[in-house]
Amino acid sequence: MRYDLNMITLQTNRATKLFQLAADNLSHCFKDNKEKKLKKEKSLGY
């Protein structure tokens, strides 16, 4: 069974894109949570 190099490259690129998307989503989540926490602390007078 011979793997097509183009096919492997395509799969790798797709996986990389998905990984980057997931990382972006995670960083957005963390950023949102940080900002919410900061706003909450400001409103509480910290």
Could you explain the architecture of this structure?
By secondary structure, the protein is mostly helical. The chain has one domain. 87% of the residues lie in helices and 0% in strands. It contains one helix and no strands. The model has no long low-confidence stretch (mean pLDDT 87).
SS-derived structural category = mainly alpha
Q: How much beta, percentage-wise?
A: under 5%
Question: Total domains, how many?
Answer: 1
Please state the CA-atom Rg, rounded to the nearest Å.
Answer: 20 Å
Mean pLDDT across all residues, rounded?
87
- According to DSSP, the number of beta strands is 0
Largest sheet: none
Number of helices: 1
Oligomer: single chain
Helix content: over 70%
- The secondary-structure element order is H
The rounded distance between the terminal residues' Cα atoms is 64 Å
Shape: rod-shaped
Uncertain parts? none
Notable characteristics:
1 helix, mainly alpha, 46 residues
Short description:
The chain has 46 residues and is mostly helical. The chain is built from 1 helix and no strands. Helix content is 87%, strand content 0%.
